[in-house]
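Q&A log
Question type: sequence-to-structure
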Amino acid sequence: MTKILVIAKCKDQAKWEAGFRTHADLFRTVYGVSKPISYGMGEDNYIGACFETSDLTKAMSAISSPETAEAMENDGLLRDTVKVFIFDKELAV
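Response status: OK
Response body:
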């Protein structure tokens, strides 16, 4: 499983969260996610979502998909602010 972190800015955090919480099926079918998604909100309307996928290629393709673009637009996410991080390294402590 590969972890992916997505950070972006939205117009309104409450509207974004309400929309985001309706996308479980999109993450399950288009992204290959089968575990809960962690997410949070920060200052200046920034949001972050961290999830694990069994298929990194599928998930990265999904980020650019029309389904994701539509979901982001409906949720008020500012697409030009989206940053994606792949967690492919680990520090043992």
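Response note: The longest strand covers residues 77-87.
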